[in-house]
Amino acid sequence: MDIIFSSFKLKDFNLKNRIGVAPMTRMSSPGDSIPRQDVLDFLVRRAKNGAAIVYTEAIVTDYESAQGYPGQARLTTQRQIDAWSRVVQEIRKAGAVSIMQMFHCGRIGWPGVNPANRIIAPSAIIPKQDNALTGSPYPTPDAMSLFDIEHVTHGFVETAKGAIAAGFDGVEIHGAHGYLINQFLSAYSNQRTDAYGGSVENRCRFAHEILQAISRVMPEDRLLTFRISNWGVVDMDVSLFETKQEYQQIIKLLSEEPIDAISVSTYDYKAKAFGTDQNMARITREVTRLPIMICGKIYDRNSCEDALKDADIVLSAKSMLLNPNWVGDVRAGKQLPIYKSEEADIAYTKEPLP
Ligand SMILES: Cc1cc2nc3c(=O)[nH]c(=O)nc-3n(C[C@H](O)[C@H](O)[C@H](O)COP(=O)(O)O)c2cc1C
């Protein structure tokens, strides 16, 4: 059987194959927080060209402190909802499932990016590494008060409502890559002494509250997914979870949430994790029955097949970005390149991508 092009039942959705477009921020939405038309068209084209799932870029959850990069998109005004609604309809017409990913950047923000100029995080700790885009250290964030926690949770719920109004098939909480939710999960950035810090249960509380609040507004026929990673975009070398046991405890707690899949983001799906001889997908699979998506250097037929030994769905970012015919090329078993990180910078140019 051709596992890559076999169908998969994700809740009530019959995916036509096991390949999805990973979430990719494009920074094309200055002003009205609506992506450029060619950036929206790109997602529709990837659906037409065979992807079974299309993720949006990370959508920012409020106008206060959530934005982490210039020109990110939001989904709370009627104009924003209308713009995405057209995209969602076309993705559906092409036979693919659309999922809106949303995020709050937490301590990865900087002044000037957010309209309110505010930077917040679980604790007032900055990353070791400077901000590559500004050339300066990240500013010290405000440790979030309980009011802040409630406000941010509300932003996730409002943005989920925007996605529901736009007709998205699903919503994903970005709990990966060292952004706010990941900052709460990891003791590296969460040194709180209240109910949101300390034990694994406490560090999961913020994600738990957001997932519960969203599930209360989600219609039964939509998907809710959670993305996690053991690495962040800043201080990349740091293992955000100290041991396999700690990571698995988090996965077990997440598995009790009303989510339909866990998306595991790695830099290389094959890489052995936590000093074991297992990759992240296998370590995740050991402790959950939820469908697993895996991402990271999956670039051709062999790597898709291999990655699907430990996961149900493969996501690709760079190959999807740079090769409009990637799904067809995988099906044909073509020899394909592994794209380098620098090649992905094309995502941020004004030139429409094929
Ligand atoms: C241009 C670009 C933008 C990205 N933006 C996001 C994002 O908004 N949300 C997210 O979860 N990951 C984002 N990522 C990470 C990818 O989804 C993916 O996890 C990573 O690139 C590894 O997959 P790959 O080897 O197939 O590129 C981005 C990656 C690229 C290249």
Specify the oligomeric state: single chain
Could you list the spans in which at least 5 consecutive residues all have pLDDT below 50?
none
Side-by-side strand order of the widest sheet: 3-4-5-8-9-10-11-12
Number of helices: 10
Under CATH, the topology is which?
TIM Barrel
| N-to-C CA distance | 32 Å
CATH architecture assignment name: Alpha-Beta Barrel
CATH C-level class is Alpha Beta
Percent of residues in β-strands: 15-25%
Shape: globular
**Rg over alpha carbons:** 19 Å
| CATH homologous group name | Aldolase class I
Which ligands does the model contain, each kind named once? flavin mononucleotide
The ordered string of helix (H) and strand (E) elements is EEEHEHEEEHEHHEHEHEHEHH
